[in-house]
Backbone:
């Protein structure tokens, strides 16, 4: 059984170090399922074209199904001495049906297979990512619901700005993640899994016609332009871009929750089972999960730039460089899915620390806008002037280290004739 | 007239170096048009809410329209001493209507304005990018049509593979660019331009209700979650991702055309008016345009990574970091549009060099697949065996430095009993 | 006067849109100084080789010096209709000396000039960056000195860990920036500014010999391999890498200072003249300078990836893509220098908020390590056991909402027989 | 035996999914050697400080040495259920010496260990990278020597420029790689492997003093500032930057050799044992090795951007994000070393195709500069005019499809009175 699908014209044996360097089985075995799907369509076409008898087709198909069952049940063991998953499956079929297996690869190119397999992988994993996102959104919504009456300080520039509902704060993240779902939906609509490119010039028409019949009603298509199909890795980059934006959202949530769980903010109590300690300092309870989520942003961006750079300036059509799309793709999918899975449970375990939040809500500057509204709407002060008055009031309060609600009438009047104790008491309670 | 829209609570004057460092007017003046649109909606709402009289609203609106006309006619001059475009327009209105202008910014936040403006900018420029793409596709199609019967060698691994139609080769690029158009369409569908976030906590409901009425039927919306809206720069990253994939396509076209216009390939004659010479070497005719297109890929990717990195780990909601989304966005839009404009005319000027292509098409290896097909379909040789036979035939031809069509019958038989002179003559003419 | 230095073999005129697209004068005018240096060496060599008379050389040199004075005094005005700075200077010399100017470009290539100019630019600007770094370090040291006895909580995982000196905390940043200086020093040692590559194949030896004589004792060199010299942009990438690490340091300082100036931490009082307010919320005092510093990290990384990507896979020797190294280089240099300049003064304006820090220092967990030390060194408890004991003590304190120093003897004993009131009083005061 | 080195203060058990998510043993086992070195220094210090008896220290040291032997002989098996390599080694020591092992981690922090280990890893692997580079340079030099008299066309803009020696062409690459070696040397000089930071605040002085004595004369140091030391990942980014520039050089060599081994250029014959074929097209001999080298550029750049992004804006001091530096670092080191190893042998197998090169050298435009030189130096034609004359001569030759050396005297004179048959014959043979 050979470990590669080519070699007739070569006199010299492949250098073993180079063989190791160039092979992909150690990661592309993850495409096994999709590669079998490709083979099953191809077998049908060969049979329809009279290149396989019914009995032959059945034997090969049975062998393929047997491998598929292993894949689906988690029992598939790639032969790591093979060049790639295509060769591995070819060999496994040969083990089952003998020399007949050779016919499986008739008029087929790995360029076509790998485009098919990788698109199919994206289809499946982007779908499952959307499902995980939805679970996470439900978690956020359930936390929001639990604390639906709670207020927290809202921030701009990490400085207190205005009071907002905690549920609206969480709602901002739900919306971001909902937008990520929509991006995935749009991706899936545009993702067309194709069979029939040959190496570049397209499958022979006597087989292509059979493909068409077989695929009627299926989501798998005949490529519009075979040269384009074997050259195309847009879908990998699109998936990595979507995951990058999603990961950016997670990094912001992580950053905020790290902040809110410091002793200084102290708004959130993080679930202990998702925190870690220190081997030196016994008092530490660290938000490692959130830090890793934040840190993985580097990896997800790096994977995107990796594939973009790899594709830069590649001549048409297929080039071997393109094999290197898979590890970054798999890495980003697996990292993001791992984060989402844990995050959904992490969120559920979060508790709001009401006492600390209530202390923060006593900060009078959070109510500056209420005073602004009063001055503008009821006292008909021009907005710009009101802005000035409130700014000066706050400065006075800070400089004299006195709460606004404790400033006496005389001082208020000096700041502005529009101010009096009644207003102040109404706004700052 | 002040150069910034804040300051009441500050005792010290802004440091002038810092003021220069932080201001954005030198690039965000490109948002003038959209900022005026925002103001015009806001004015209507203020009027409806009774915070401006009809006459006041009219005066401000007239002033805004006057500035808008300047913008649209190219006559708008930003005042570079202002902090940003919002301040500049505010000041220009003040020049026209005096102190009344102060009311324009009533209960409005630049956080809301800049989100609105930037989304609107993306809307407009992504639309015009799609138009430019369509023009380029037409150019490619017209070149394809001109040479519709022409064959060229098709490549994988930059090595000759099989003969393909030049029109199909160009069609691969047309399809890539068509896919870029589809990505833009999907972007536009998802891009929701919003007004009404306030600084973070949302516009006061007495104004929000007016917005809603005013915007009925318009594509502008009230934000679903105001915290999210002022925090969101997904649309910038999405646009930069789409432009990165598009640019990657252009880099591949550039690479191929650079190759095909070398003396060694010599398939294409590039239009002289888009080539440059050397100040030292008088014989040079260099494909500089294509090289710059290829080289700009770095810039476009860099702009994407710039905004992704900037957004990493930002706490909610608005942070000043986010101001730095604009230069990369503008840069990518302007570079890609510049390339597309010239490329459409460049493509039209390309000539196919038939003589050189015909010489290349004499390469017998290009017809190996025809022999494969014959052996498999007519001689019923197993595909794997046919692959082996043809591989050996080519090796024989190379080792003996003899054309396949000149190999005599005896040698053919030694390579394989399936080979004979008749077949060889049929396949390799 | 022509606007470009080539064209004899071209029948068609350069397309005006393409001319605009490809020209570089709008940014490479910043290389004027260095380009004049190149010309001055070349003039001397031409004279020595008998290709210019003494009088001719003098006239050209005087014209060059005249332009140089304008450059140094800030009065240089690039002619934006020229192709590049080389052409602009050539033309300006022509304006001064007439047709004789044509001899200046004898046997010279812009490939050689631009490599020389850009290396020289890096030399100068990396030197001045080091100077700015040193000023910033002095600022940090002076702040450290001002508060040399002050303690603050030290953090890991943004959670309080152990008490540290504020001066050591600042010292960490000084050391980072000192390491940046060392990286610049190493860069400068390796940066060899070369003249004499020609377009690629090297200057003619009759001129090269003259260069050698002229440059004896100068830091400018003859290229070791001319093909390499015109192909090389390593120095740009090295400079951008150094600036990226430096910028990463600044982003961490910015992040920490943003955190420490929140109302929640409140350790630092930022200088008002470097903060900004809100156009809507009158109470805001935002750390915009620090946010912009943090945000610019995206730009600096993006510029690095831009040049790395541009250089990927470029065939030898010079390609026009390489022109696109300059904007990212200039951008990173200017941004970083802008930040460093302001930051040095910003740091000086920072005030430590002792009251808030003292409150934080009351946090007993900060002294857990002192208790650990006591248990291990004086009570000979195994480290692992001591870790356990202190961990439980802290848990007890949290669960019972009681200060460690208030836990009564009985409870201490239950946690561990090694604990007693005396120890607790000593450690937690 | 526990799988993690902390936990006393935690009531809840670590979530098993989170434990899997956060652990690093699956990759940081590569640091085993260095972690043992750290332990061995620490053991000595504990003994010197009287915290271990001589016998205890010996027993632990023997156990560590035993593990070290396994690491060095390739027989080390990490326990993948541990949290990290520090825990794994701690546990393996415990297996050997029982409860005594607990003393090994006395007053030690993994923050200090991991900084030490990773710096040491960089030291070792950058050194071995330099060795591999030198071997590759020798290969290039031996190829250059083999073909030392051979000329090839030199290129700018992928267009033929001037004739150059093949050995000089290869010399350009040797020089690039030599510069990479120098960058590594500088890196090694600046890389200071430190022990003694504690978690952040520095090792207790009673141990630090012992470290100092033990390390006298060693290259290992006490950290200048412990806060900085546990916060620092500059050395990882520096290493990744150096590898990025090196990889960029390899990508250019790959690109050139891919080009030169096309049928169209045909200058190089690549060693068959490093090429691959097609499973569909029997005639293909593809330069897959070179394509993978070119393609891996994406990965190497992506790894750099990954760590840069991860470090952006991290507060002092250690954060868990920083654990994510290792996979990108290991990945880049392993990829580049893999490439270098094979490339050195690949280069040796390259053959120059003299016939094809000789045909290319017949291209008359390659000698345009010789005619320029003649006109300028011997005929005293101004350079600019000579440039014009030669440009027109080439245009004439192209338009009339006639070799320059075949243009008759009359036509030459019409192009320029400076041209005649004698000159032409001398220059263009």
Residues:
């Amino acid at each position: 059984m050979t470990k590669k699908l080519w070699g007739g014209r070569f006199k010299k044996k492949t250098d073993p170090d180079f063989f190791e360097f160039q092979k992909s089985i150690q990661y592309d075995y993850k495409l096994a399922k999709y590669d079998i799907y490709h083979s099953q369509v191809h077998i049908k076409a060969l049979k329809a074209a009279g290149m396989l008898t019914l009995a032959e087709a059945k034997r090969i198909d049975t062998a393929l199904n047997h491998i598929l069952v292993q894949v689906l049940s988690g029992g598939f063991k790639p032969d790591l001495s093979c060049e790639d998953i295509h060769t591995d499956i070819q060999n496994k079929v040969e083990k089952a049906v003998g020399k007949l297996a050779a016919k499986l690869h008739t008029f087929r190119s790995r360029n076509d297979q790998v485009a098919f397999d990788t698109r199919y992988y994206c289809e499946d994993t982007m779908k499952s990512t959307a499902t995980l996102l939805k679970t996470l959104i439900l978690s956020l919504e359930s936390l929001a619901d639990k604390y639906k009456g709670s207020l927290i300080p809202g921030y701009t520039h990490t400085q207190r700005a205005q009071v907002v509902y905690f549920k609206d704060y969480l709602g901002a993240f739900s919306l971001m993640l909902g937008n990520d779902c929509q991006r995935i939906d749009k991706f899936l609509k545009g993702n067309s899994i194709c069979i029939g490119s040959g190496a570049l010039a397209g499958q022979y028409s006597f087989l292509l016609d059979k493909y068409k019949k077989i695929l009627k009603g299926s989501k798998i298509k005949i490529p519009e332009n075979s040269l384009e199909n074997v050259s195309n890795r847009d879908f990998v980059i699109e998936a990595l871009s979507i995951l990058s934006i999603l990961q950016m959202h997670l990094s912001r949530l992580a950053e905020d929750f790290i902040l809110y769980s410091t002793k200084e903010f102290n708004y959130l109590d993080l679930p202990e089972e998702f925190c870690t300690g220190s081997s030196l300092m016994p008092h530490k309870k660290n938000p490692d999960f959130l830090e890793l989520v934040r840190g993985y942003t580097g990896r997800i961006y790096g994977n995107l730039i990796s594939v973009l750079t790899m594709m830069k300036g590649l001549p048409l059509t297929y080039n071997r460089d393109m094999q290197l799309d898979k590890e970054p793709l798999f890495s980003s999918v697996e990292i993001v899915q791992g984060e989402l899975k844990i995050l959904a449970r992490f969120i559920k375990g979060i508790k709001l620390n009401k006492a600390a939040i209530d202390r923060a809500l006593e900060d009078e500057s959070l109510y500056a806008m209420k005073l602004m509204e009063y001055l503008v709407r009821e006292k008909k002060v021009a907005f710009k002037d009101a802005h000035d008055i409130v700014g000066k009031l706050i400065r006075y309060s800070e400089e004299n280290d006195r709460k606004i609600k404790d400033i006496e009438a005389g001082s208020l009047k000096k700041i502005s004739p529009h101010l009096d104790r009644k207003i102040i008491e109404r706004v700052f309670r």
